[in-house]
Amino acid sequence: NIIDDSTAESTESFNGRIFGASGATIGVSTAAVTINDNDSGAPTLDVQPLTLDENAGPAVIQVTLTPAATSVVTVQYSTNAGSATGGQDYFGTTGTLTFNPGDTSKTFPVTLINDSTPESTESFTARIFNPSGATMGANTAPVTINDDDSGAPTLNVQPLTVDENVGQATVQVTLSPAASSAVTVNYATQAGTATGGQDFYGTSGSLTFNPGVTTRTYQVTIVNDTTAESTESFNARIFSASGASIGVNSAPVTINDDDSGTPALAVQPVTVNEAAGTVTVTVTLSPAASSVVTTNYSTVAGTAVGGQDYFGTSGVLTFNPGETSKTYQVTLVNDSVAESQETFTARIFNPSGASISTNTAPVTINDDD
Q1: Pairing between β-strand 232-242 and β-strand 250-256 as defined by DSSP bridges
Q2: Torsion of CA 115, 116, 117, 123, to 10 degrees
Q3: pLDDT under 70: residue ranges of the chain
């Protein structure tokens, strides 16, 4: 016997089975008996999706019943958090809906929280369960909340370029539009090509924007050294805002060097005949310094080999104020072996009171054999 219930169901089946044969073998021992449901017109409950703005008031969730029932239908409902959080973006709720005979739609409200924080679009889930007198179709649906705070105050840190001799770099943080209540944000500096303690002194703290204020600043001390350097930068950074969102959270502070006129040392190339006995290596300083400048020097083998073609040397050169040129001697080995032209390298390093522009130069030895 097949039971003709009133519940809408998928196609179902059971198996007819034979066994324990006597006097014959069994071929197909089981076969499916398929039952097609005749309750496609039974009432079905569906919860409907909804999209609304954060400031719309309560979200009115609709649950539909199709077709209308001839007897009372009930279903429970609730809300489940998603990217929208209960207690922060909406207030969760639960309850029971009752459809009297002929009803096809019922609703339940969910209170939304209209905060002032700019947020992405968020959603939670409306859910129905435990139906009585009907089947369930769509038992969950998203409730999407569009943020209405695009005009909420936004903080941005501004890029800045200063000369090394400026003393203090004034970093500006802006708030747009002005807030109606106090806004705070933390700030800090972060090293880049400019190094904390060498090119600037790192700092951190907090800025407060009172109602109506749109700009605040903080100071960063710049180190004005005498070393000729490339343009360098560090980052001004803001974080952990309260009462506003953050737009641009990091911006470069660029330091232009003011030491382009700083004295620079350069070792000069030279060519000499093997029979010369010694070669004079010249190191120049440009422009002249107003205080003492020193630099170390040495020789580095190349195709010319130390001890065979020349005698390596090292030492220190001192430039007194106003001097622009110093030399040191390298002894050459005048052998009787016919050789190709050979070279070694004259090198300067570890300067004090000046930068180095050219730290190596070739010393070329022409053979006289």
Answers
A1: antiparallel
A2: 40
A3: 5-11, 36-41, 116-120, 149-152, 227-230, 259-261, 369
Contacts of 250 (CB under 8 A, 6+ apart): 157, 190, 235, 236, 237, 238
DSSP secondary structure code for residue 222 in this structure: E
Structure tokens at 195: 């190094």
CA–CA distance, 279 with 331 (Å, rounded to integer)? 6
Q: How far apart are alpha carbons 174 and 265 in whole angstroms?
A: 45
Residue 282 burial (10 A CB sphere; 0-12, 13-18, 19+): middle
Closest by CA to 62, choosing from 43, 49, 76, 79, is: 49
Token couple for 158? 């501004």
Q: Can you say whether residue 311 is alpha, beta or left, with left for phi > 0 and alpha for psi between -120 and 50 degrees?
A: beta
DSSP 81: -
Distance CA 187, CA 209 (A): 13
Q: Quick check: helix, strand or coil at residue 221?
A: strand
Token readout for 261 is 């006129």
Size of the chain, expressed as the number of residues it contains: 369
Measured between alpha carbons, how far is 88 from 147 in angstroms, rounded to an integer?
13
Q: Tell me, what's the pLDDT at 79?
A: 96
- Token pair 């003393």 is found at 167
3-state secondary structure of 1: coil
pLDDT of residue 367: 80
d(CA 116, CA 99): 38
Query: Tokens at residue 44, please?
Result: 């079905």
Strands 355-358 and 264-267: parallel
Single-letter amino acid code for the residue at 161: T
Helices vs. strands in the chain: H and E counts, helices first: 0, 31
Q: 214, 227, 142, 148: which is closest to 179 by C-alpha? A: 214
d(CA 363, CA 328): 13
Quick: pLDDT tens for 44-67.
Answer: 999 999 999 888 889 999 999 999
Q: Which residue has the tokens 């195709």?
A: 303
